[in-house]
Design brief:
heterodimer; A: about 270 residues; alpha/beta; Rossmann fold; six-stranded mixed sheet; four-stranded antiparallel sheet; about 35% helix; about 25% strand; B: alpha+beta; 3 domains; five-stranded antiparallel sheet; 13 helices; about 60% helix
Chain lengths: ~270, ~525
């Protein structure tokens, strides 16, 4: 039994290029004087859910925001090293950041619906891409909302304000908003920490569906969640990747002492 | 009692009642202000009863007069009555100031009429008779039907003047231009028709002058008024409350739709109201995009350094610059420098007559736009500051550039804040007088800044402004009576105008706010 299971798991340190969604090479990130990430080297597998766990302030959110360059918006943030997505370095000076972000979607900790109708929210990204044909927008909105299981709940009120949705629905709508652009990669930064258990369950179920189409990277400080939803997990501590492997082995037989202390709750 | 102190609850209630008292005082002041303005301003439209007074003159003789009470004042312990009356010598402006003790009797007789003339004058007298064109003597009750006839006649005169007569004039002028001889048959035919029409007009005008209203003053002398000169005739003493209310509203309607008369002390204020509204709207048109774009740069794009801080401080200080300084700047820079150069470049064929090189509504609105710019910038920045970072992040994460995020997401959400700034700017612009007097607002403007004549917007024209009208009236009317009522009526209108502009803007703001916030 156990052997069979292990058979699907890839060795994250030795992925073929076809299996890799993101290749992180010698990534360093500093905020002024403070080094937030140090020499990160990772291969993130395609069409899998990868979780980043670690204490608050360990740099896991900074790492995830390097993948679509959201950290560019932060004042005094310097990045060196390479993040290679689909064969090209996203930190190359010719990289168009806006285009990158349409390929690498991101969902934040707190649901941030725009104060517009649900339809306008979900079609926001597409409209920015110059899609204005009503039929295309309709189709894309419906598909994105179906993917997140929200369609049945909101199809009669697409033109009502998104602010009327419940917290969990808002977060799923925000995910749908990102999915409407059909991104290769979806980054989720503690997507359930502001939600109630039922809404959390919805989102977790959703992640399993999403990995068929997208590579999912999730930051969480809830280890049960990481164990439940992810295929691979990286434990990050003080800006370094301490241990990175498939979730089953990381949570059942961690190789490093620090990892073991963290997942058994001795610190963090 | 020596150790008596406030306990915590008492301290609390002292603080509450003290602050409540201050707030209450404020409310009182507000109520008093609007009450005062509305009572005095509304009084201008109210058809006040006409009294018949008998009083003793200083020489001991008794005199009777039909009077309208303008005001009461106290002087050395005695009440002084200020009256207005008409006599043959002083048709419109008789003023009477009497000690109350010298008045022997006051009564109100029903057939006293107040006749408002088309030139703005008012005659107060007793009704005697109306004479129609065929010499019949009619009673007061026939006035409306007689005036109906007169209005028809006047309309027919106008029709001939504007219609056929004008056509003949044009035809004759074109004949002149082509050098047609003076005895050419076409010209003779036109001339014949011209004289026929002239005669017809003379006949109608003759009929018109036949209509007359005869009234008597209190001293027994009679006076005859041509009926076509009368704008309105009222019998206030015989009017019911309902009639008086209706008459007040009618008077208000003509107040806001007529032109001023008798040196801006009577008649309507339409040109001033119109000028104020056009100026404020033009100003809003200039200030909103400028202010919003400047605020967007300052808040969204500008680096957070000392230079930006300095600019921000300067903008805030601009709001405190005395408005007359802006007026002088507008005159010195816009009119004498920019305007004069525009004239040189574009209107050189009309020099030395200035087109844009003279004060006018365009420069006035532009100056007011600069004056109100800080208000809009500060309010817009405040609105931008309130847009949460999470929404910006959300937009960026969907592949929006900074410009897209600002114009598609942030500005719409900040729009209620922007509207607040625009409301404040409009109210400020509508009420400002000092700078306007230097750069285009005048006591009397012969033409409106917007009319039916091509190119419809005459932005180089001078204009009338309610505030300037009030200022002018307050400075130049020597009497405390009717003139000041006119001023109060203008004040009331200015207040109403600012209020309604604000209400519209607040309505829009609330709709935007509802759209962009929770619930």
């Amino acid at each position: 039994m156990l052997k069979l299971f292990e058979h699907d798991k890839l060795d994250v340190n030795n992925l073929s290029p076809e299996q890799t969604a993101i290749e992180v090479k010698q990534l360093n990130l500093r905020f002024g004087e403070k080094r937030v990430l140090e020499d990160i080297n990772m291969l993130i597998p395609k069409n899998q859910v990868t979780a980043l766990i670690g204490q608050s302030g360990c740099g896991k959110s900074s790492l995830i925001s390097c993948f679509n360059r959201m950290n560019d918006l932060l004042h005094g943030c310097e990045v060196s090293g390479q993040v290679i997505i689909s064969g090209s370095d996203i930190y190359h000076r010719k990289q168009n950041v806006a285009t990158l972000r349409t390929r690498v979607g991101m969902v934040f900790q707190k649901p941030n619906p725009f104060p517009m109708s649900i339809f306008e929210n979900v079609s926001y990204g597409l409209k920015l891409q110059g899609v204005h044909e009503r039929r295309k927008l309709d189709d894309a909105v419906e598909q994105a909302l179906r993917e997140t299981g929200l369609w049945k709940e909101v199809r009669d009120r697409l033109f009502e304000s998104a602010l009327t949705l419940s917290g969990g629905q808002q977060q799923r709508m925000v995910i749908a908003r990102a999915l409407a652009l059909k991104p290769e990669i979806l980054l989720l930064d503690e997507p359930t920490s502001a939600l109630d258990p039922l809404a959390t369950l919805h989102i977790e179920e959703l992640l399993n569906q999403l990995k068929k189409q997208h590579t999912v990277i999730i930051v969480t400080h809830n280890m049960q969640q990481a164990a439940r939803v992810s295929d691979y997990t990286a434990f990050i501590h003080e800006g370094k990747v301490i241990e990175y492997s498939d979730s089953d082995s990381l949570f059942t037989m961690p190789k490093r002492k620090q990892t073991e202390s963290y997942i058994t709750g001795r610190y963090g | 009692m020596a150790n008596w102190k406030f306990n915590l609850d008492q301290k609390q209630s002292v603080a509450t009642s003290f602050t409540a008292a201050v707030a209450g005082f404020l409310v009182l002041v507000l109520i008093a202000l609007s009450f005062f303005i509305f009572i005095r301003g509304g009084g201008f439209f109210w058809p006040q009863n006409i009294q018949t007074i008998i009083y003793q003159q200083p020489d001991g003789n008794y005199q009777t007069q039909f009077v309208k009470l303008d005001a009461k004042t106290m002087r050395v312990g005695e009440e002084i009555m200020h009256y207005r009356y008409s006599s043959v010598q002083q048709l419109f402006s008789g003023q009477l100031t009497l000690k109350k003790s010298s008045i022997i009797s006051i009564e109100e007789i029903p057939d006293v009429v107040v006749v408002e003339l088309k030139n703005g004058g008012t005659v107060i007298a007793q009704f005697l008779s109306i004479m129609d064109a065929s010499g019949n003597t009619l009673g007061l009750e026939k006035f409306d039907s007689v005036q109906g006839e007169i209005n028809q006649l006047i309309a027919s005169v106008e029709l001939i003047r504007q219609g056929e007569l004008a056509d003949i004039h044009r035809a004759l002028a074109s004949l002149d231009q082509r050098g047609v001889k003076s005895d050419a048959p076409a010209r003779v035919k036109l001339a014949k028709r011209f004289y026929e029409l002239q005669d017809a007009l003379k006949d109608v005008e003759g009929i018109l002058t036949g209509y007359a209203l005869t009234v008597a003053f209190a001293d027994g002398s009679t006076y005859s008024i041509n009926l076509q000169d009368i704008r309105e005739l009222r019998t206030p003493n015989a009017m019911s409350l309902k009639d008086k209310l209706a008459s007040s509203f009618a008077a208000f309607a003509s107040f806001i739709s007529d032109s001023p008369k008798l040196n801006n002390t009577s008649g309507g204020v339409f040109p001033a109201l119109f000028g104020t509204i056009v100026m404020v709207l033009l100003m809003t048109l200039f200030v909103t995009p400028f202010g919003v774009l400047a605020a967007v740069y300052l808040h969204e794009y500008a680096p957070r350094n000392k230079m930006t801080a300095l600019i921000r401080i300067s903008v805030n200080n601009l709001a405190g610059v005395p408005s007359i300084v802006y007026g002088v700047f507008g005159l010195g820079f816009f009119v004498y420098v920019v305007g004069a150069n525009i004239d040189k470049l574009l209107f050189s064929n009309e020099l030395p007559a200035a087109t844009f090189g003279a004060p006018g509504i365009f420069w006035a609105s532009l100056t007011m736009a600069i004056l109100t710019l800080p208000v809009v910038i500060v309010a817009t920045e405040e609105g931008l500051r309130r847009v949460p970072q999470s929404l910006r992040d959300g937009s960026y994460a969907l592949g929006a550039t900074q410009a897209e995020t600002i114009f598609k997401m942030i500005l719409p959400i900040a729009s209620p804040g922007i509207m607040t700034g625009v409301i404040l700017a409009m109210a400020r612009g509508a009420g400002e007088v000092a700078p306007l007097m230097l750069i285009g607002a005048v006591k009397f403007a012969p033409a409106l800044p917007v009319d039916g004549e091509f190119p419809f917007f005459h932005l180089q024209r001078q204009f009338m402004h309610l505030g300037v009208l009030i200022y002018d009236g307050a400075f130049h009317s020597q009497n405390i009576g009717n003139g000041s009522s006119f001023i109060f009526a203008c004040c009331m209108l200015l207040l109403l105008m600012v209020l309604s502009l604000n209400l519209i803007a607040i309505f829009i703001r609330n709709r935007l706010r509802k759209q962009y916030t929770q619930n």
